[in-house]
Amino acid sequence: MGNDGHIAEGKAIISGLDRQVQVRGLKSRLFRLVVILLSLISTLPLLLILFYIFKKGISAINWHFLVSLPKPVGETGGGISNAIVGTLMLIGVAAVLAIPVGILIGIYLSETPKGRIAYNCRLAVDVLQGIPSIVIGIIIYEWVVVPMGGPSSFSGSIALGLMMLPAIIKSTEETLKLIPEALKESSLALGVPYYTTVLRVIVPSGMSGIMNGVLLSIARVVGETAPLLFTAFGNHWMNTNIFKPTSSLPLIIFKYATSPYTEGHKLAWGASLILIIMILVLNLITKLVERKWRTPF
Amino acid sequence: MLTTANPSAMGIRIRERIFKYSLTLSAVIAIVILLAIFLTLLVGSLPSIRALGISFIYGKTWDPVSNKFGGLPFLAGTLLTSLLALLLSAPFSIAVSLFLGEYYRKGLVAGIFKNIIDLLAAIPSVIYGFWGLFVLVPMVRSLEMKLNVAPYGVGVFSSSVILAIMIMPFSVSLSRQVISMVPLHLKEAAFSLGATRYEVIRHVIIPYTRSGLFAGILLALGRALGETMAVTMLIGNTHSLPHGLFGPANTMASVIANEFTEATGRIYSAALIEMGLFLFIVATIINIIGKQVIKRFTFE
To answer: Model ipTM?
Structure first.
């Protein structure tokens, strides 16, 4: 009798434990479900944004849209040729300015793991990366626009170049750090001078990583608007002179998106689609470069 | 000996020296640029600092015509939108970080997800603003009608939602790394004691990665504070203090974007530059703290 009581008691405990285990398992599964659900919801904005831009942008784009100038406010038709040319010009000059400096600093940092200059330089690059883009706009306004007497494509390129630097520097440093010391030593042992070793052996071995950083930095600044507001300023006409104000895709999107005219909105959707395609293509190329010419170390 | 007698060796030595100097010089230039940015902002804002002093921070009226420059509406607007955005994005960014750092670390699903999050970071701010204006604002407006508040559409809430979407990838990229760096033996020990997946996450992963998750949130906050275009297009740009979650407001970055080119008068433009200085200092502090936390985490 007493024995039976003990058994019943034991069974009760075990079933209690069983229930506890079940509850814990259920909780775990429920949590996993919530994580997956929230993650899926997180992808919605991207899909929605791409959906709207493709849907509204496709109908705006045709050959005429790509090769003609914007029409005066209120008139139908018109295109964004000046903005496309302006963006290409801004980015081209910015890249020419930023790539050599960025790669040089990257080489210095990878060759100098320690030291006061290197430490401060790394810190400066980190801080530079975090500066809000509008502040870069103010700075370039004070440094370039005021001395040059007015806004220009050139000042816009300097602003964008400054914003490209951190990404180029970091990718160069990270890539070159991965290159084995033996490669450098064998080059030096053959009597090759240090600078030739760096420029002809080390940098080419890390080329894909550096290229990647350059492409990513371009993809990141091609849509920048805030630093261009006070520097490139925008231009209603075609401009190919780097010392004159120029239009660009982000600027034209901002201008027409906030205008009250439906025709302007159409222009802005089209410009957004072109800009998004540029960015997607740049990202795609980066991925391909990464896969195809992966640094072999 | 390869000394001065050999002209080509000497040429090499000179070139070598030039190369090394130019490397060092370029690194010094990076430091100088940063210092110069700080000094330019400081000097540019001196007229306003002298004329307004501390009243710049608590002054509520921003009226350039009568030379009143109180920055509080913009300060409040910036803090409100950024913190709200952080709050809105936190559950999602933690979920995505766990998804990519713990549940699905490799494979097709993880690859697709990683690309989607990367693309979210790649979309330009101005496109977020444009999309927000034409898709999000109408939705917010109908929500406001249901809630019986004035249906502005634009305002603090719309800006915060867009900001939340924009900063999510930044905190995810860091949190994911940190979560996937939790040592396997810690997790296995917990599993061997009979812990469920949830319990491992709750009692091993989260405590272990706390500082890293904090750094991720901090860096996302840095992004949110300085974000300009999308917020400018969605916040409504008033000059008064934000009233409530739905009304229009303004932020420091937006007021700079809207008024800097038209700012006539020394104190007016200096006041705007002072806001730039604020943003710069806050962003710098946040970045340095964030980077220190990450560094300590990776060395542990």
So the answer is: 0.91
